[in-house]
Amino acid sequence: MKRMLKCVALGVALMSLVLGGCGGEKKDDKAASAKEIKIGGIIDLSGPTSSVGVPYAEGVKAGAAYLNGKGGVAGMKINLDVQDDAYNVQQGLSIYKKFAQDKVAAIQGFGTNVTEALMRTTAKDEIPFFSASYSAHLTDPKSAPYNFFTSADYSTQMRAALKYFKDNWKESRKPRLALLYPDHPYGLSPIQAGKDYAAELGFDLVGTANVDLKAIDATTQLLPLKDKKPDFIWCGGTTPSTSVILKDAKKIGLKATFFTNIWGTDENLIKMAGDASEGVVSLQTAAVYGQDVPGMKIILEASKNQPQMTHYIRGFVSMLVMGEGIRLAAAKGPVTGPSIKAALETMKDFDLQGLAPSVSYLPSDHRPSMAVFLYKVGGGKLTFLAQETLERKAEWLGK
Amino acid sequence: MRGHCGLFFESYRAEAAVFPSTFQRVCLGLFVAALLACPFMLSSYYVSVMNLIFIAVIGAVSLNLLTGVCGQISLGHGAFIGVGAYAAAQASLHGAPFLAALVLGGFAAALAGMVFGVPSLRLKGIYLAIATLAAQLILEYVFLHWESVTGGSRGLVVNAPQILGYSFDTERKTFYLLLAVTSLCLLCVTNVLRSRHGRAFVSIRDFYLSAEIAGVNLFSSKLAAFGLSSFLAGVAGGLWAHYTMFISAEQFGIGLSVSYLAMIIIGGLGSVSGSVMGAAFMTLLPEFLNAGSSALSGVLPDISGSIVALREGVFGLVLVLFLVFEPEGLANRWRLIKAYWKLYPFSH
Q1: What does each of the 399 residues of chain A score in pLDDT, given as a tens digit?
Q2: Boundaries of CATH 3.40.50.2300 in chain A?
Q3: Across the interface, do A89 and B251 touch by the CB < 8 Å criterion?
Q4: Does residue B1 lie within any of the structural domains?
Q5: Which CATH fold topology does A155-284+374-396 show?
């Protein structure tokens, strides 16, 4: 009898799951109407990168709501459906298949692994895919024709910082550089480019070491560096590993200018590392909440004056650029994946009112911009330092 | 019908038949027919989910052969799948036909599996788990740093499978390819289990000393288990590489190894049908949870954020509940259901 009950309970649970699933789909069908454009979202909302994925997704949603508030794009309302891939390739893949079947016009993606796993498939299905994975190889249309993003790629970010440091270097000796990064596709992505450019600019590379993304201690990597007295140290991880490095550096008295990319410093790092984060140079490609730029009032409105992380603004910008692509495509004819791609590739200096550097794409070059914002952590917040704009060199494409 | 009820065997051969009764053969025939009809009846999304299940089934049944049947726990299965994926991808990039590339991927993975299986002679249980974990970490490192072969952090771009000029470039076409390969793999494992080797594997799992006394060569049998299991894992990897058309080191992490272990534990250790059920269950669960949470967030939009977080918790909870209430896996539950209906309505 007990066993029967258990069976029944299990059956009911399964049934409710199945029914729940069907219910969800029916509603989606009803929502679809003629004057609408479907956009999919595949973002990590519960996985290992969800601490930045959630604000990014909120930004993307706010961007869509903002465009819809202005009457939509070319008269079409954006119907954005953001699904959680939990930073898992299989889940990302099946969400993508669902979107492809629903004939979404374009997708707002997020993480490196899912973006790369879908690279070929999106090209085959002709669905433009905007990601928050800024690996340089995604900017080469030869291998990733339908991949777009709105920020300078990881390699460009690092090059921009090196250029800025070199230009502001006052001493007669060569500046000393050390690189700390996780042994992980994301961490490795800009390293070769950084090394090459550092050598070209005349940096002395005094050390490299691996600090894992999940590291809880970095003293073993930092102690040997201390004797080599680097002036600049690259932290190529995410905020948790950066905060470990900063705290340990403070502990052992290693003084240098630490610099990180987009995911290495954000508002959370200041909370995690406290005083140790003072003086860190952060490379960003979107404004910080509350910064004095013309576009900020849109963000303040969209977020109802609730302070947001910079990832939110980058998500917002990504949606604005996608919206502009759709608008340009609609001006020429029917809006399809290929027409959005073609329209994006004609985009020239799309002004984002200071929220991010202006965006351009070329048919042979999907690098959105060569400009990077540098911020400095001071007094518990990110303060704008400079904008560094590099030359769009052909040999840097995809590297 | 024929004057007797139930199944009676007059020879060991008859008992060991893969499909002992006509009824089973009919059921299986209907099941296969239903599967063959699936791509025509289902939308491409459901077909793609089934494709993922097929690949997972091959991976799960191969791990079940090693862990469930031979008792050699492996935490490196994800990496062996990766070896197969990279090898098959490289082979087809160098012009090998798809099927040959698949087999080559299998052999490469088998080699890797046998190398890392060597410690299994000395190590058992948790110690072997740690040794295979080392295999996982070492291979992951190789995937990331052997740039000329694996593409390093940039990954490797692969083409869709092609056999004799026929390209399997849509979900529906791929479905039949995967169905065929999966059926072959399942038949292969089922038949191995009926052979001398299969019985040797089981005897090693049950008690290694008795097995040795009975004349089983422990070392060669364990290596054979590692080799065959990794071969099939490599085939799964090759299929995965050609199916997604892009592979990178991140895809074959420890998480993949653990999820395959979860599949065979949920499905039933040592059972071929259990591997199938476990793989299907583990692939479908996130889909159901996704659908469920999006349905709920439609009703209660304000708490959609916390529902998403809850989903991960539900996933874990379902796994724990399974371990508590179904320790012998879905395969055993299926047996009990069959037994119940066999005697219905005179079960007592």
Answers
A1: 455 445 445 554 444 444 444 433 333 443 444 588 999 999 998 888 888 899 999 999 999 999 999 988 988 999 999 988 888 888 888 889 889 888 899 999 998 888 988 988 899 899 999 999 998 889 999 989 999 999 999 999 999 999 999 999 999 999 999 999 998 888 888 999 999 999 999 999 999 999 988 889 999 999 999 889 999 999 988 888 999 999 999 999 999 999 998 898 988 889 888 889 999 999 999 999 988 899 899 999 888 888 889 999 999 999 999 999 999 999 998 999 999 999 999 999 999 998 999 999 999 999 999 999 999 998 888 899 999 999 999 899 888
A2: 34-152+291-368, 155-284+374-396
A3: yes
A4: no
A5: Rossmann fold (3.40.50)
The C-alpha atoms of residue B150 and residue B142 are separated, in whole angstroms, by 8
> Is the CB of B295 less than 8 angstroms away from the CB of A54?
no
Residue B248 and residue B250: Cα distance in Å, rounded? 5
Closest-CA residue to B271 (of B65, B74, B75, B73): B65
> Which H/E stretch holds residue B312?
helix B304-325
CATH assignment of the domain containing B77: 1.10.3470
Please tell me if residue A112 touches chain B, with a CB cutoff of 8 Å: yes
CATH superfamily of A34-152+291-368: Response regulator (3.40.50.2300)
Q: Determine, yes or no, domain membership for B348.
A: no
Asked if residue B154 is part of any domain, the answer here is: yes
Q: What does pTM read for this prediction?
A: 0.80
Cβ–Cβ gap A84/B308 under 8 Å: yes
Residue partners of A235: CB distance under 8 A and separation at least 6:
A180, A181, A211, A241, A242, A245, A246, A258, A259, A260, A264
